[in-house]
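Hi again,

Forgot to attach this to my earlier email, sorry! This is the prediction with alpha-D-glucopyranose bound. I've pasted everything inline since the attachment limit keeps bouncing my files.
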Amino acid sequence: MTQHLADRPQPASGPGRSQDQAHDWWRDAVIYQVYPRSFADGNGDGMGDLAGVRARLPHLADLGVDAVWLSPFYASPQADAGYDVADYRAIDPMFGDLHDADALIRDAHRLGLRVIVDLVPNHSSDRHEWFQRALREGPGSPLRDRYHFRPGTGERGDAPPNDWESIFGGPAWTRVADPDGTPGEWYLHLFAPEQPDFNWDNQAVRDEFRSLLRFWLDMGVDGFRIDVAHGLVKAAGLPDMGHPGQLKLLGTQVLPFFDQDGVHEIYRSWRQILDEYPGQRIGVAEAWTPNAGRTALYVRPDELHQAFNFHYLNTPWDALALREVIDSSLDSMRPVGAPTTWVLSNHDVVRHRTRLGGSLARARAATLLMLALPGSAYVYQGEELGLPEVEDLPDDARQDPAFLRRGAHEDGSGDGQEGLRDGCRVPIPWTPDGSSYGFGDGGSWLPQPAGWGGLSVAEQTGDPASTLELYRAALAVRHAHPALGAGADVEWLEAPAGVLAFRRRAADGTAFVCAVNTGEAAADVSALLATGKALLVSGTGPDTATDTVTGTDALSAGILPADTTVWWQE
Ligand code: GLC
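Structure tokens for the complex follow:
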């Protein structure tokens, strides 16, 4: 156990945990997602790496986040940017080695940051030793049972076993050659053909992942983000979907290969392992489910700790819609006693500044709303700089397999997942100029737009109007304020049309109010914010009230500008 964890309370294990809720770090943690390819490049080869992340950890400590989640850095042919793992116990040489991972975890702990790693249990790489052996050994090999191999349909077996579609476009099945070279069985891949799905009915698969959890827990990690957590178990007999059509990566359809009840037994067994370790090690589900109630099942007291709230991420910038999704998110987690989580951006979606309409003011307002809500919040690297989506990447620079598979349907239709995930993965700027704006000394694997340096960490540091300083200030207030974080529930307040307003009252009576103007015009909130003072205002630029970060004079006229959020001390 690392030093900084030693003086923290031990995890309350199992269903009795509610007794110790005040000490559960993950109930209100702000977790920062590092996308290792694009965070910082330590060796100047144009690709981010673990040494780069390690060197830049102080930025995260200064920002005030509680934990870092690292997207996959395992040995991988990179058919899906590392979400195709060939060896779960090795670091890909382009990111470093196990010594770098160990040093990174130790440094993070010294800085008071917890470390969450990405675990990819739905599929491996087609280069994984098991899959390669399965191919070599041919039909009937026990290794084939660790994946989903099936004979084809049709007279010559040249049609796929069922009608499932890949999330990245085209059929979810690929035919392989038998060891003698003749056309053979088909295997299932819900994602790219280089990502064969594991068969979770096979005991060896279950045993392997329990062992992997221990491997990384022994390395000192504080938790796992579980990739495609809803996909592991498929409906018995692999029945047809019945309504072929392109699937969405963050979709909510009811499907025979997602959100099957059998997944929960797996997470119960993982929870037992997590609870064996000191320091509250956690599991976070990336689960796309039809509704928040189904998501809550993943975080029952004997399963995982958190699940991403994609329903929130998908909500438009509209007071009523936001209120509805906030209510339903909180309501669905209450019965299971798990914290609600909030997220606006990640490596799979258009950055929220661009997605919500393009204005930096609106992005900042959305962030202050998210950070005012009860529970845990996720911040994706670069959003603290207000980075927009890079929308004009040249096609030949793009690496997203969904982009490369556009039109993979036989009839030429279908754009898997729109194929545009590279635009949120462009390496982030650290300095106003220099090679790749401080990302590294050797260029950057995706081209950075001109002017990127103006948004850099160095450029924004110390500028009270900057987005970076807004995030720093917000995280500091969030940590210090007794009504923020996990604490008090949300009490909705009457507000003008387009304005969302709620109060959170701490146990000691301190009252905090958050008001958000999602409308197109400034709103009169003088009745709402009659007494007290502004703690923080999201605004930026001439369209906003006054002093943007300290906000002490802001709103003195009781006017909340459009696309602005205020944090208020009553
Ligand atoms: C998850 C990841 C995404 C990846 C997919 C397949 O959704 O977030 O980036 O492509 O799983 O592993």
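Residues 152 and 161 are 5 Å apart (CA to CA). Residues 80, 83, 120, 191, 227-228, 249, 286, 347-348 surround alpha-D-glucopyranose (CB under 6 Å).

That should be everything now.

G.
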